[in-house]
Structure formats: structure tokens, C-alpha cells
Sequence to fold (104 residues):
Amino acid sequence: MCGKRDFVFYDILGDVVCGGFAAPIRDNYADEVIIITSGEKMALFAAKNIAAAVKNFEDRDYAKLKGIILNRRNIKNELEYVEAFAKEEGLEIIGDIPRDDAFQ
Fold:
């Protein structure tokens, strides 16, 4: 690596979530983890797996979960789905990105 990063982003497929995304957390590349998700079923599935993995490392002084950013896909009841997930995980929704076809 060429020095310390301020932000590192991982784009994880919702249907192929494995332990590989945890390696950077274990290797101290992150102090805090923010999960960016839509309200789609597979996105929330991936988000739940990531949250579980990060929480599994909490007692080892690895990265902590900071919150969730909702990246809207404009599906029906999307905010409610993500709010329910956040509540279930004990997390706060710290950002809300509106749907924009320019970023499709």
C-alpha cells in the first residue's frame, strides 16, 4: 500500500457475500465501517452479513460500525425496510442518497 487511506470503499455483491470483505477490517485498514445499502432484498442481505461480521470482531479492537447510508433505488417502502434493518442492528441511518439516473 502507498500510505494511509482516509476512505476505502468496497462494493460487495448481495448474492455472493463471503468472509473476504473482512480481511481489510482484521488488518486494521478501517477504524469505522459505514454500510451503504438500498432497501432491496439482496442489498439488505449483504448489509446484514457485513454488520454481523463487523460485530463479531468488536471484542478484538477491530473496526466498529458507525451507521448506514441509504442509497435509494426508489422501491416501494424502501425507507421503512432500511429503518427496520437499522433498528434491528442498533444502527443509525446517517445519510440518505436520493435516486439519480446519472449514477446508474
Notes: DSSP finds three helices and three strands in the chain. The mean pLDDT is 82. Residues 32-98 form one domain.
